[in-house]
Amino acid sequence: MNYTLNQLQIFLKVAQAKSVTKAAAQLHLTQPAVSIQLKNFQHQFEIPLTEVVGRSIFITDFGKEIAAAAEIILNEVEAINFKTMAHKGKLTGHLRLSIVSTGQYIMPFFLSGFMQQNEGVTLQMDVTNKLKVLESLERNDIDFSLVSVLPNNMAIEKIALMQNKLYLAGKTLPALKGKKSREQIFKDLPLIYRESGSGTRHTMEQFINEYNLQVSKKMELTSNEAIKQAIIAGLGYSIMPLIGIKNELLNGDIDIIPVKGLPIITNWHLIWLKGKKFSPVAAAFLQYISLGKEKIVKEKFDWFENF
Question: Residue 177 CB: number of other CB atoms within 10 A?
Fold first, then answer.
């Protein structure tokens, strides 16, 4: 046997994802690279680790045993690395976050300095919709969540990071250049919604309900990126967070449609379960955010604050 830690990691990821394509994406590798390493790993065993039926890959019983052993080995290697860092007086451990999809445009800027200062810290960050973010928080699977709409029925603590501004985004057509009422704009325009469970959708529906607006044409897409592409293609309009459409605004691909009552202004909050006992890494990150958030906002988001 002459397999490598890299091969163990790749096989474990394929076993967990049940897909070479998904494993490659999660490992930031090409699919052919994963397939080659998987083949080389298999050659060291006389018993099949996987079987392919149609286009689906299945892990054999023997493969599941090897995957379980690989996980133990990789965890032990990681523990050795952590202990080495700790003996050097460096902060070590995992930082686990779950953030709503629009948070991908801001959270990396609040993380980069901390991660650069603490090379012994590993980051696990799930980017999903608000419903799934809160589910992972409630299960205590993560240290912190980033949301723009606070949960109503959960005991949490929080720290505000920065504002969130939502505008009606789309293409300015000749019919929109005249003075049109808010009611007429929403009645005439094809409106694009995020999926159920999205914080952006929740905020958008609150606005529509507050002003009793009629929406005659609508569609639903499952990500802000998909909505941006739909808007650029001329499929419709949507109330979107400003933070996610900076480049499209600068390029002239998307316009802000002036509407009375917009922008909707909320706040991005980093939240955690009330009474949570933080690991040293989580406690250090919270201190880093508390002391440095104003500087980060000023350096990275000045354009946004002054929009």
Answer: 8
